[in-house]
Design a protein that fits this description.
The protein is built from one helix and twelve strands. By secondary structure, it is mostly beta strands. It folds into two domains: 3-66, PRC-barrel domain (SH3 type barrels, Roll), CATH 2.30.30; 86-135, SH3 type barrels.
């Protein structure tokens, strides 16, 4: 499933189908290559709630079903938006901008990151911060041959 297809999906509670809000963004742990949290907007005041990915019951093309957020604030990592991030190698070389990302909705594992310069396999991701998505340079990823001079 693509990140861009998840944004804006209605979030419903299981069973009664109460509307909890709409998906605003997915939070990523780039080092582990997984989606960890769903950020939703709800209510007229557009409050933001954070749901752990483990609270997601099901996700489809038209809806995300999740347990309602608890009254206690979830301990969520800081959010850095993957979509639109600059891509830099660990050596500081520019590698484009993130256009989208594909992930497995059952396991929350990122499968690939789609950039302005092509597709990156998830095993090249190192970290995501305010400044950029940092990736392994060529020849340092698993199974990627080193370039020849």
């Amino acid at each position: 499933m693509l990140f861009s297809r998840v944004r804006g999906l209605p979030v419903l509670a299981p069973g009664d189908g109460d509307r909890l809000g709409v998906v605003r963004a997915l939070t990523v742990d780039a080092a582990s290559g997984t989606v960890t949290h769903v950020r939703i907007r709800s209510g007229r005041l557009r409050r933001e709630a954070v749901l752990a990915w483990d609270d997601v019951d099901a996700i489809g093309p038209d809806v995300l079903i999740a347990l309602p957020p608890s009254s206690l604030p979830a301990e969520a990592p800081p959010h850095h938006d993957l979509l639109g991030s600059r891509v830099l190698t660990e050596d500081g070389e520019e590698r484009g901008t993130v256009l989208d990302a594909a992930f497995d909705p059952l396991t929350a594992r990122i499968e690939a990151v789609l950039t302005t310069l092509g597709e990156l396999p998830a095993d090249r991701l190192l970290g995501l911060g305010d400044h950029a998505l940092v990736i392994r340079g060529r020849g340092t990823g698993r199974g990627t041959p080193a370039p020849r001079d």
